[in-house]
Amino acid sequence: MALAACCSLQNALAEAPLLKGMPLDAYLESLTADGLRIIFSSDLVSADQVLLEEPNPADPKSSLARILRPYGLKVIDGPSGSLLVVRDELPAETTEPASSAERPPLPEIIVTSSLHRLHYAESGSHTYLERELSTRIPAAAEEAVRLTNRLPGTASGGISSRNHIRGGEVNEVLFLFDGLRLYEPYHLKDFQSVASIVNASAISGVDFYTGGYPVRYGDRMSGVMNVTLREPTAQTETELALSFFNTSVLSLGRFGSNDEGDWLVAARRGNLDLIVDVIDPDYGSPDYQDLMLHFGWDFGPLAKLSVNVLAAHDKISLTDTDVGEAASANYDNKMFWLKWNANWSDVLQSETIVSLSDVSDDRTGSLDKSGFVFAFLNETREFKAFEIQQDWTFAPAERWMLGFGFRGRRQTAEYRHNSAKTVLAPFDQLLDNEPFVALDFDLSPEGAQYAAYAEVRWQPIEKLVVDLGLRWDQQTYTMSMNDNQYSPRVSVLFRSSEKSEIRLGFGQFYQAQEINELQVSDGRASFYPAQRAKHVVANFKRSFDFGVDLDVSMYRKAFRTLRPRFENVFNTLTLVPELQFDRVRIDAFQAESRGIELMASHGSGGDSLFWWLGYAWSEVEDSTANGKIKRSWDQTHTGKLGISWRWGSWNISAAGEVHTGWPRTLLTTERNSSRYSVFHTLDARVSRDFDLPRGSLTAFLEITNLYDRQNPCCTEYSLQAGPGGTSELAVRERHWLPIVPSLGAVWRF
User: Fold this and answer.
1) The domain spanning residue 370 has which CATH number?
2) What does the DSSP 8-state code read for residue 35?
3) pTM metric for this prediction
């Protein structure tokens, strides 16, 4: 029996081709053809490099480290489950010529085929944040999307997972998950949006654009958050996680005789309700859950199909007796999509997504603020969308690539809103107030959105890449006139050397009012034309020999055709903002945002030590009938920094921020005419890895606002009894997050 097995093994080995001596780039391409998805630069892997040993055909991924080591290279995890070949900072003794070994890596990822090479040589500037960073950098509630708050061009108070990008509103960010547009991507969306509905453990990473992005991205005018789905790297992977914020389970893997299939299941429950029950059971119960299901099968080059489901449910009931405010809500968010990827040839690829989205919101609220206002609100919203989208990439020549695609979505919505607000004297004469306002809406808009785009990417010389693109969008809703927009965009990438690059971008970016964004709770029952922003951006990057990367960006955004927005000018931390007496309508006919950003960094998430240091100068102003007024999130100076150090089984990290205080409005002053004091905070995280008989365990302690800084955010007014039975106006400041600890563990096996 044993002899027969040995003979069979000997015959198999004799029949297997010997790969030692094969060109390294050809071997990597063969692995890519077999589905391993390896991305490498032709400047790193040269034509004279060959395999110095025989790889293990049963486990080619593990063989890569040994094969690449002699050339001072290594492999790390890349976007969407890919593997990136990069230079090893501590290479082993190399056998290739010194001149080749000292060649630095390009800042862009370039693979050998013309289609992929031009695809990764995108001239627009963006940041890729891998999921693993959220396991090293402090991120409240273990939210990977909060990593974007660590970049100098974003502004956030720290409670919400949403942020302002280069002066824009928080609703100006396009949120994509696995290519699908998410319309309401956050849990507790009317209550500070504390978490996204996408479980952080189910994502591979985030491509984050802050301006000048390609024409394939539309509908939002300030930024793009493109979240990619995690792919399995083993036959089966499982993660069980528990912390103060979440309880989560994830399982993913591959199946089939040749691993043609893959699957993922991720479920999460928020633990905020349990925390509130312990701290203040009378305050209420914020509860949320989400579920992600994915099933994929690779039928061959022309048919890689997947079926996906994402569902989220929120139930919240809160009461703030100090200000006489109460609110409750139920949110249901369900998405189903089919995805088809096809490689028609070496130069032609396509991706098709067919999706259904179903969103429903129910919300009630009441306010009894003695001496100021009495109000109530009942609201139900329902939204459905059916969408087909397709994207094509065609590279007919070594230096040309054409991208084009279309979107078509049919949408329906229902609004049922009833509210009443009584504002008492003398406050009924302040701001935009009236003594009594009642609203009653029962609306059912429906219609469609269409979009098409085309982009040409041309590399006239080795150091220069030019992108020219044009996008068309149209909205055809009832209750509004048809609206068309045309968005030309141009961007240029010039690599002055292997260590330096310059990027320039210009373009129009429109944002239509979605059919589920009707502002009925503020009394608006019709849709406004699309808003417009013109982006002008310039970016310079330089990699230095001592391992530090420098990134300098300058930008200007000119906003036009703005629709009215509504804000609470005194207190934004409120349960039912529409009912407060400080609610105002802002009619800006245009706005402008400009700034300069600097970022220095060393290392990456795969290194034992990495750090970053960022600074931004910026300003954003609305032009109104009363002149130019700072937007409420304007912060002139911003500094952000962080460090993470892996020492054996320990990882220690910290991230801090300091910025100019946001504009402040007082009862007797013009809106945003003063400022709150300087905002500063420091977050820290310590984790320890333990090897277990089965898998590994990571235990962590994370503290938000480590030294409990009271950063002011809001001004709250109340009436207090004075002498002789009179009432006196009392003023107090409210603050952003206090010190917030979180203890948790993740078991991976």
Assistant:
1) 2.40.170.20
2) T
3) 0.86
